[in-house]
Design a protein that fits this description.
Layout (H helix, E strand, L loop, with lengths): L10 E5 L5 H9 L8 E8 L9 E8 L3 H16 L4 E7 L1 E4 L3 E9 L2 H18 L2 E7 L3 E3 L4 H12 L3
Parallel strand pairs: 1-4
Antiparallel strand pairs: 2-6, 3-5, 3-7, 4-6, 7-8
C-alpha cells in the first residue's frame, strides 16, 4: 500500500465521453494477477426517475482542478483504511441522456471485504464531498438537484467506523 504522504493512489478521470466497463476491469487486473483476490466495481446510470417523473436526462458540471484534488483525497483516504491494490474513478460531465453511464468506481484488493468496503466508501464520499453539480432535465424545463439527506446519513457511518 502506498504512503499517501508521498504519492497519490489510484486513477481519476473526469470526462464527457463514455467509458467501457470491460476495459476498466481489465486495467484493474493487468499485471497484478498474483496480488488480486477481488475486484469490486460500481457503475452509476442516469435514472428515468428523480424528484419528478418526466426526467429526460441530466447535465453535470464540475470545478476543474478542485474536483480532481477532492477525488484524490477520497481515494487516498480509502487506501489508508483498507489494503488495496488499485482503484479507478471515472466521472462524466456534460449532458447525459437516460440510462447513460455517469460514474465508475473500481477497486482491486487481495480480499473481497476490503474491495467491497472501499468501493462503497468512495461512492458514498463522491455523492457528498465531490464538487459536482447535477441538473435534471425534464420535458419542458430543468432543475438543479439538491443534496439528499440519505446521502449525508450514509457518510456518517464512515465517520463513526474507521474500517
Amino acid at each position: 500500500m502506498p504512503s499517501n504522504k508521498t504519492q497519490s493512489f489510484g486513477s481519476i478521470r473526469i470526462q464527457e465521453q463514455d467509458f467501457s466497463i470491460e476495459t476498466e476491469y481489465a486495467l484493474l487486473r493487468k499485471g497484478k494477477l498474483s496480488n488480486i483476490g477481488a475486484i469490486c466495481t460500481f457503475t452509476g446510470l442516469v435514472r428515468e426517475f428523480g424528484d419528478r417523473k418526466d426526467v429526460t436526462g441530466m447535465f453535470l458540471e464540475h470545478y476543474p482542478g478542485m474536483t480532481e484534488h477532492c477525488l484524490q483525497k477520497i481515494l487516498d483516504q480509502a487506501a489508508e483504511r483498507w489494503k488495496l491494490n488499485d482503484m479507478t474513478v471515472i466521472h462524466r460531465v456534460g449532458q447525459l441522456t437516460l440510462s447513460e453511464q455517469i460514474v465508475f468506481v473500481g477497486v482491486s484488493s487481495a480480499h473481497r471485504a476490503d474491495a467491497f468496503a472501499a468501493c462503497e466508501f468512495v461512492m458514498d464520499y463522491l455523492k457528498t464531498e465531490a464538487p459536482f453539480w447535477k441538473k435534471e432535465t425534464y420535458t419542458n424545463d430543468s432543475q438543479w438537484v439538491e443534496a439528499k439527506q440519505s446521502d449525508q446519513q450514509r457518510i456518517q457511518k464512515w465517520s463513526n467506523n474507521k474500517t
